Amino acid sequence: MTDESKRSAEQPSDWALYGRLLSYVAIYGLAFFLSILGFVGYSVANVLLADLTRFLLDSLGESSRMGIGLVAQMVHGLWPRGDLDAVAYARIAVPVGAIVLALVRAAGYFLGNYFMNIVARGVVHRLRTQVFDALIRVPKVVIDGYTHGELVSKLTFNVEQVSGASSEALKTIIRDGLTVLALIAYMLYLNWQLTLVFFAVTPGIAGVVLVVGRHFRRYSRRIQDSMGEVTQLSNESMHAFDEIRMFSASYQQSARFHAVSQFNRVQSLKLAFVQAVSTPIAQVLLAIALAVLFWFALDPEILAGFTPGSLVAFIAAATQLGKPIRTLTNVQSVIQRGLAASEDLFAQIDTPAEADPGEHGIDRAQGHIALEDIGFSYPGDERRVLEGVSLTIAAGQMVAFVGRSGAGKSSLMHLLCRFYAPTSGRIKLDGKPIEAFRLADYRRQIALVSQRVVLFSDTVRANVGFGQLDRIDDAQLLQALETAQAREFVEALPQGLDTVLGDGGDGLSGGQRQRLAIARAVLKNAPILILDEATSALDTESEAAIQSALETAAAGRTTLVIAHRLSTVERADLIVVMDGGRIIASGTHESLMHENGLYASLYHQGFGEP
Ligand SMILES: Nc1ncnc2c1ncn2[C@@H]1O[C@H](COP(=O)(O)OP(=O)(O)O)[C@@H](O)[C@H]1O
Ligand SMILES: [Mg+2]
User: Fold this and answer.
1) Widest CA span of the chain, in angstroms?
2) Which of 7, 84, 442, 502 is most deeply buried (CB count within 10 A of its CB)?
3) 530 burial class (0-12, 13-18, 19+ CB within 10 angstroms)?
4) Euclidean distance between CA atoms 530 and 298, whole angstroms
């Protein structure tokens, strides 16, 4: 009952899925048409080759039976026999016919396969780029819900599944499907009564195909999901080599990996089982059909309607059905895997991009920021991360945020960057709610150095000039590196600016990575600069060096610094103390020390100074 209702609920969405996949194919309409044309040629040539046997055999028999078959009629039409002896005639016509048909079949095979690949590769490319473009524009909340491995697996494994389905499987379906149709048509033409006997068993085969398909899809989904985990765990472990060794966690990590891989193995085996069991069942059903066929065919009355040639041709056609039917049942697993994957990919493509309702364009903001009674919880998480945060920051001010870790400082910056929307309250830039600005324009106003430095495995130039390579020259780049105290070490790298950084900046020290991130933000030259613990990995000396440089960089911009060390804080125009998602105090260093609250105690602990 539940299974039944589930199935009927699945049915319409399946059709929607096919329809949508077809719309991708439709873009390559001409190639698709040529491919079908090729496969039609292929399957018709196949049938005619069977008919050629009939022509050959009938030429040996009584001549009254000659000239009845399809090939025979064609040959006689093209080349009248005249008074040539039947065997002599066939001796020329059959070999020539065989070669011509083989050539047609070969051409059809080439056209069909090659053009279907043009379609398939096009579909895959389009899907892959669409998924990538969708993922890259999706709101942060959506990305939060996935591991990196899952995302990578979508773009690689899932897309490959679709590619398998759309190239190999589609080809098989069309080529073998057409062959089956052509063979059945030919059998009907030879003897329709006998062919109908054959059909009696067809529903059985169709039933096997359907049931098997449903199982295939279920296992494919599981395999797909577990591939995401496999990718994630491998990624994670490759990045955590040091930790795994030093915490003696190789056993633990291995165990996790083994479990995931085991699940994948079991699901793949289930799939393989269904696949391996379905083909023989379909074959046995086919053999039963053939047995029934033979029995009827050898009935004297029916036999009378056949020439020896047409009987052999009929049986040859019926036997030839075996191979395409086998591949058709087999290819189901590929198709179902592709369908399961495309379901997932379409879901990605359909995820709406970040909302961008703002209509206000802005060139360069002044940098006046107002936080009005901000409350915030992360989506899907009850806990209040921010509560009643109100603050006015004048253009050009430097404001330091201090507080214990988990106080909500980074979250507040996320809201400013419009990664999330506040649950309540409003943020204004230059007197306008920030949602009123166009997202791209708004984000251009902010240079962010986030707590977690992200570098790309690309050149130093590409990393620092990220997003603005078309607008900057080396002089500006070096200037920014200079400001971030990074110029010296970059110039000491083997290829200077052109040095390709290892995976995510491997091979640089934490401090060097941070300085590159600062240089990147400095180069953006935005009116608002946000530094989220941007100097946490620097030693006191290089921080002191950067400090003055940052002050130069901060001049003329609104700067928000989440600080963990005193030197930054003391120079700020305003210090905001946060705790438990609230602003519990604000003022200058002196006034806050005088209050003798959290700030003073954090100060005495040295803010976590080394
Ligand atoms: N993506 C997230 N989803 C849910 N909760 C989060 C997320 N990021 C941070 N938090 C929670 O928000 C609170 C504030 O974190 P955060 O703003 O990073 O603090 P701080 O930067 O002051 O150390 C913490 O309790 C943290 O667990
Ligand atoms: Mg933080």
Assistant:
1) 125
2) 442
3) buried
4) 89
pLDDT confidence of 170, banded at 50, 70, 90?
Answer: confident
Q: What is the pLDDT of residue 40?
A: 94
Counting ligand 1 atoms within 8 A of each CB, the residue from 143, 378, 405 with the most, and so the one to mutate, is: 378
For domain 23-350, which CATH number applies: 1.20.1560.10, 1.20.140.10, 1.25.40.10, 1.20.1250.20?
1.20.1560.10
In sequence order, what DSSP letters do the residues of 284-334 get, joined into one string? HHHHHHHHHHHHHHTSHHHHHT--HHHHHHHHHHHHHTHHHHHHHHHTHHH
pLDDT of residue 566: 66
- Domain 369-608 architecture: 3-Layer(aba) Sandwich (3.40)
CATH 3.40.50.300 domain span(s) along the chain: 369-608
CB 502 within 8 A of CB 469: no
Q: What share of the chain is helix, strand, coil (3-state, %, to 5)?
A: 65, 10, 25
**The residue to which tokens 């921010």 are assigned:** 386
Of all protein residues, the one whose alpha carbon is nearest to atom 14 of ligand 1 is 408
Instruction: Evaluate if residue 397 carries a pLDDT over 60.
Output: yes
Residue 161 makes CB contacts below 8 A (sequence gap 6+) with: 220, 224, 337, 338, 340, 341, 342
- Which ligand 1 atom sits closest to the C-alpha of 562? 21
Measure 449 CA to ligand 2 centroid, in angstroms.
12
- Name which residue leads in pLDDT, 603 or 417: 417
Tokens representing residue 4 in the block: 């039944």
Place of tokens 């080439």: 110
Please give the full DSSP string across 577-597, using - where no structure is assigned: EEETTEEEEEE-HHHHHHHTS
Q: What is the spatial distance between Cα 318 and Cα 335, in angstroms, rounded to a whole number?
A: 26
Among 139-143, 583-587, 603-607, the minimum mean pLDDT is found in 603-607
Which amino acid residue places its CA nearest to atom 26 of ligand 1? 406
Q: Which residues line ligand 1 (CB under 6 A)?
A: 144, 378, 381, 385, 403, 405-411
Mean of pLDDT values over 108-123: 91
d(CA 424, CA 226): 39
Name the DSSP class of 500: B
Q: List C-alpha distances in Å: 464 to 102, 461, 477, 509.
A: 62, 5, 7, 16
**Ligand 1 center to residue 144 CA distance, Å?**
12
Ligand 1 pocket: which of 381, 385, 536 to mutate (most atoms within 8 A of CB): 385
- Say how far apart CA 274 and CA 538 lie, in whole Å: 59
Q: Which residues belong to CATH 1.20.1560.10 in the chain?
A: 23-350
At residue 66, the pLDDT reads 58
Q: Convert the pLDDT of each residue in 399-425 to its tens digit.
A: 999 988 899 999 999 999 999 999 999
Does the reported pTM lie above 0.85? no
414 Cα: distance to centroid of ligand 2 (angstroms)? 10
How many angstroms separate the alpha carbon of residue 244 from the centre of ligand 1? Answer: 26
195/176 Cα distance (integer angstroms):
19
Q: CB-based contacts of 580: which residues, under 8 Å, 6+ apart?
A: 387, 407, 408
Q: What spacing in Å lies between the alpha carbon of 452 and ligand 2's midpoint?
A: 9
